[in-house]
Design a protein that fits this description.
This protein has 99 residues and is mainly alpha-helical. The chain has a domain of 53 residues. The chain contains three helices and no strands. The protein starts with 7 loop residues before the first helix and ends with a helix. Pfam families: DUF5344. It comes from Desemzia incerta. InterPro entries: DUF5344, TVIIS_effector_SACOL2603_fam.
């Protein structure tokens, strides 16, 4: 079984950095005015902008979900660390053999 080492302070720095980067994603949609033009190239360009706007919205939503999950992981890790800190070596051995 592999072990994962989480350092809460460094993880919090990563979460904060991720939040700042995610906040920089512009949620205002890109748009263009085509006026009275009915050109295939312009129509395809507008379709591409709409798809890009949707992709950016989806990316931002997924990133916010990732940030929330990272915060849950950090909180769970801190709780587990606190529980283990209050246990003696005997408590840890008997606790792990029960499971």
């Amino acid at each position: 079984m592999s072990e994962i080492l989480i350092e809460p302070e460094q993880l919090q720095e990563e979460i904060t950095s991720f939040k700042e980067a995610n906040g920089a994603i512009d949620s205002s949609p890109y748009a263009t005015e085509k006026g009275h033009l009915d050109l295939t190239a312009v129509n395809k360009y507008i379709d591409a902008l709409e798809q890009m706007n949707q992709a950016l919205t989806n990316f931002k939503n997924l990133s916010e979900n990732d940030i929330q999950n990272l915060e849950y992981i950090r909180a769970d890790w801190m709780n587990l660390d606190r529980e283990l800190a209050g246990m003696t070596m005997g408590d840890r051995i008997f606790s792990s053999s029960d499971s």
